[in-house]
Structure prediction request, 232 residues.
Amino acid sequence: DAGVTQSPTHLIKTRGQQVTLRCSPKSGHDTVSWYQQALGQGPQFIFQYYEEEERQRGNFPDRFSGHQFPNYSSELNVNALLLGDSALYLCASSLQTGITTNEKLFFGSGTQLSVL
Amino acid sequence: AQKITQTQPGMFVQEKEAVTLDCTYDTSDPSYGLFWYKQPSSGEMIFLIYQGSYDQQNATEGRYSLNFQKARKSANLVISASQLGDSAMYFCAMRDLQAGTYKYIFGTGTRLKVLA
Prediction:
């Protein structure tokens, strides 16, 4: 049973560039969330996708955008990269069961983005 | 606003002993869930244990138990019989269980080192 997979594992970009990160959810999961984890901090919620729509968004600028495909995989796009965007980007998947307490997040190992 | 506070940046414990990792939270919502995740150096966040705000008993999952004190707004993680493989970052997280809210709020984490 494949867990959450993310690609690439590491990425180096320069300021002003654009980046796309990819995530495949755990088998059977239909919901994908993205989190940003800066060094020494806990993860910060970016947004969640369900049924190919952005369902909720955290306090991140419009430079951060995403997409969910019919097979439930997802992409996170960041435009006009800033030095402060350097972080570990975590993808998490879950299954909508209608019983909120059962909707545990399963995380991937993340993409480490370095902006120079 | 919701907030998670973890006041212990780092903890040491001797192998086979028990250790308590502290977590306090703040929310005005009556219905919420509290989670603990483990993050090894690989980066993946691993779900450990869940406690719902209306659960009468403290949650347990194998060697993990959650000491839930609702009046004090604390949700401490207790790891019994520590193992070397328990060395990792530990994050406390909260999710508002009201409809339309999907984000998790994470604390800054506690780095646990188990000594042989």
User: Anything to note?
Assistant: DSSP finds no helices and twelve strands in chain B. Chain B has a mean pLDDT of 94. The radius of gyration of chain B is 14 Å.
